[in-house]
Design goal:
This protein is about 75% helix and about 0% strand. With about 180 residues, the chain is mostly helical. The radius of gyration is 23 Å and the shape is elongated. It binds zinc ion (ZN).
Length: about 180
């Protein structure tokens, strides 16, 4: 009987092991997907080639950044749809309580990811609103031009690189 319990215990352990491996693979796949989404966005547009003496954040430039932000937003929205479908698919699979526990923590992680993606979409919407209001591309703290290069790398940036660096230094001070 003890032996049987031991074997059963091992079997459960084995099954959990397999499940964890599957879970890690799944999480890895998800992380890769997210990285890919970001890279796709970066690859799918040509950096803005400003003409000599071109006015900063003229209509062409605003259009350029609007396009980048909209592409980013649609990729994130697709990511959220995929997450919802994955959760619906997974919901009926496991009957074992151990598996269910793992599944619940998976879903908690999924929900956190989704929450983060939703916040990012909100930030993108706010950024697009700033483009429309003709306020995009200037540092919220000191008012200087953030610059095309920095904005292409971080389209939702609201601070110039100097203010951002200062901000991070201050945050690190507070953390200590
Ligand atoms: Zn600044």
């Amino acid at each position: 009987m003890i032996l049987l319990a031991h074997v059963l215990g091992n079997a459960t352990g084995l099954r959990q092991g397999v499940f964890s491996a599957t879970k890690s693979a799944f999480l890895f796949y998800q992380a890769a997907q997210q990285i890919m989404a970001v890279e796709l966005t970066r690859k799918s547009f040509t950096p803005y080639a400003a003409k000599k003496g071109e006015e900063y954040m003229n209509a062409h430039q605003r259009k350029h950044f609007r396009k980048i932000l909209e592409a980013l937003k649609s990729e994130l929205s697709q990511e959220i749809d995929r997450t919802v479908h994955t959760m619906q698919d997974e919901a009926t699979v496991f009957a074992d309580p151990n598996d269910r526990a793992s599944q619940e923590s998976d879903m908690a992680l999924e929900l956190r990811n989704r929450d983060r993606e939703r916040k990012l979409i909100k930030k993108i919407d706010e950024t697009i609103a700033r483009i429309d209001a003709n306020e995009y591309g200037y540092c919220e703290s000191c008012g200087v031009e953030i610059g095309l290069k920095r904005l292409e790398a971080r389209p939702t940036a609201t601070l110039c690189i100097d203010c951002k660096t200062l901000d991070e230094l201050r945050e690190r001070q507070v953390a200590k």
